[in-house]
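Example 3.2
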Amino acid sequence: MTATPAPGRFTPPAKPAIQRLLEGLRYYLPTILIAVGFLVIWELIVRVFNIQQFLLPRPSAILEEWMGEFNRFTSGEGSILWESSGATLRSAVGGFFLGCGAGVLVALVTARFTIISEALMPFAIAANSVPIIALAPITNNWFGLTNPVSKMVIVAVMCFFPVMINTVRGLTMVDPRQLELMQSYAASPGKILRALRIPNALPFILSALRVASALSVIGAVVAEFFGGPRATLGQFIAQEAAGLGFTRAWTAIIMASVMGLTFYLLVIFIERVTMPWALAMRKSE
């Protein structure tokens, strides 16, 4: 038996899959065109002005180097670039979940008590302004140069504060009328948290996760510059640049960018699943 819609309510028909695909392509088409145009201009400038490869390699040379590493990886010969990317990705993902999880938990505690939240916020902002290069040598000394935990801690610190600050804002910036309504029904603090504060904070949390997804890769690569195994992107870039292998260094830089973009798109996908209305609002802006 099929359910019939309530009288007076109109349910819009679902859009065909092809129409949804075309709408998605139309939304991302300007970004794709700008990226392709940038690469074409880059290639032409290097070729026309005969810029040396150690100053700025051609995108085609970077792509050729990347394809060679990919073929070695898929054939089982082993690729130091892909091995380095895997190690950096593990540090980025581990630090991302550690920092974001801690940020949400601390926000849930501090948002419950306004005095604690207001007292800790200046310290959180001050700690967030500490440059990453000041913390990397310290964590390497604590956990060891070759221990991936030292890199995860750096990533966690970078992700913790944006997530914590945004989550506190989302938990506290609720509509007073909605809060008074729930209190008038004698709702418990736990019920208010689950039914009002957390749903209100969800857009803030996902916005912070988008920022943290990019910061996680940046933090992992920068932390690796200060020491670590050879098979990490930070060390790979540093050693290849020192040996004048700038094409391979640029290949690793592009690899890190692709990792960060993929991580960002994954967060966007989670946002699309949990809050489709938020994405629709951004498209209409």
